[in-house]
Amino acid sequence: MSDATLSVDNPVCAKFVFYAAVVLLKTTLMSLWTSRHRIAKNVHTSPEDYRMTGSKPSVSLDPHVERVRRCHLNDLENVLPFVLIGLLFVLVGPEYSYAVLLFRLFTGSRILHTLVYLNEVPQPARALCFGAGQVVMGLMIWEIFSKTSF
Amino acid sequence: MSDATLSVDNPVCAKFVFYAAVVLLKTTLMSLWTSRHRIAKNVHTSPEDYRMTGSKPSVSLDPHVERVRRCHLNDLENVLPFVLIGLLFVLVGPEYSYAVLLFRLFTGSRILHTLVYLNEVPQPARALCFGAGQVVMGLMIWEIFSKTSF
Amino acid sequence: MSDATLSVDNPVCAKFVFYAAVVLLKTTLMSLWTSRHRIAKNVHTSPEDYRMTGSKPSVSLDPHVERVRRCHLNDLENVLPFVLIGLLFVLVGPEYSYAVLLFRLFTGSRILHTLVYLNEVPQPARALCFGAGQVVMGLMIWEIFSKTSF
Predict the structure, then answer these.
(1) Alpha helix (H) ranges present in chain B?
(2) What is the pTM of this model?
(3) Which of A99, A126, B114, B146 would give a disulfide with A94, using CB separation of 3.0 to 4.6 Å?
(4) Inter-chain CB proximity C91 and B21 less than 8 Å
């Protein structure tokens, strides 16, 4: 029997659960961050939103709101695949310290990515954070393919 | 050995499988709902779509199509994180009746969210549905962090 | 005890891990493909991207970049739900050859969908690829509901 189960008895899985929760929390918080900017700038998505505030639609796009939205979308494009790839990666039984290193690298790179994006830090800062996450996912997929077959 | 495994032998997991399937079905149906509106309004995304229907692109955006699209995107932003957070939550072994309550609350809030969004029910109805889902995810993440460590 | 566990000891799960990794790899590669087109066409999302290249924002939308972006979004809308539905499907213990057939059909339909979309193959090619994936997910959800309860 493989001991690479999805259970907190499996130390790799226990660590994965923690880091996956961190990046998922970060992703869901982006929704609230967008709402905060929409209210502050009075830029909403639907007519009923304007009816509640009693205001008129002004501009359809605000650069700050759009920035937070792009940052949120980037999380959906990266964090959700990471958690799914991570679950598969835990199942193929990676070496403990290597796995934890990858989980920490990804989590760190995504938190940094958000700080860089929202504060408009000059490029290539954002590209490097994004790239670090992509490399981690590539290494995990490499490990998965090396231990499974079509 | 923890009995908080991902298996239908674990009652919490069995319930999770059902409710996660409900909200994922709801999310994938949004694609078909968008297609239905695109065809009815003849508002497509790509030139080859217009070549098939033999029509010309009229307006690039239609308010009904855009409403369904926003509703679909909102599901991707909320339902996919919920299912992932839910898997992690099952792994940390929550109390059965508490867990089922959270699964039902989330599922109900998302079905209501879609009805409210598509029928343009005045705010704050949509904001409350959205908020209920966020609170459920927050409680699950709280439970995960209380039982794992970095 | 159910033997429908999430473990590579479960043959259905082992196959799922492989095919889920294929479609997730495909999805994450779409990010890099978008970046490649953004750089080639000099169409970026944020002011700091233009500051790095020392160029001015020209048009805000380029048809090639938008096509790759739509293709990427379509993957997020289909591949991520497939992997989640697939995990639940593995847990309800489907018949091995049926399950592997569904995994292969979905994976094939999504690879074809991308080739069709990026090469602007006339409709209904893209609609058929999309539909095949939706049918596979529908069959999986049917199986899940037939073995779980609210």
Answers:
(1) 11-41, 47-53, 63-91, 96-118, 125-146
(2) 0.90
(3) A99
(4) no
Q: How far is CA B134 from CA B76, B114, B138, in A?
A: 14, 15, 6
* Look-up of token digits 């609350």: B105
DSSP state of C50: H
CA distances from B11 to B89, B122, C19, C84 (A): 13, 39, 28, 19
Min Cα distance A14 → chain B (Å) is 7
Instruction: Tell me the chain C residues in contact with residue B76 when contact means C-beta distances shorter than 8 Å.
Output: 76-77, 80
Any C CB within 8 A of B46 CB? yes
Q: Domains in chain A, start-ordered, CATH in brackets? A: 11-147 (1.20.120.550)
pLDDT digits (tens, 9 = 90+) for C16-51: 889 988 889 988 888 888 888 888 888 877 778 777
Our CA angle for C47, C50, C55, nearest 5°, is 140
pLDDT digits (tens, 9 = 90+) for C117-144: 998 888 788 889 999 999 999 999 999 9
Element spanning C114, H or E: helix C96-118
What ipTM does the predicted assembly reach? 0.87
HSE at residue C84, side-chain half, CA atoms within 13 A, is: 33
Chain A residues within 8 A of C32 when measuring between CB atoms: 134
| Contact indicator for A1, A92 with CB cutoff of 8 Å | no
Number of continuous H segments (helices) and E segments (strands) in chain C: 5, 0
Q: How far is CA C59 from the centre of its chain?
A: 29
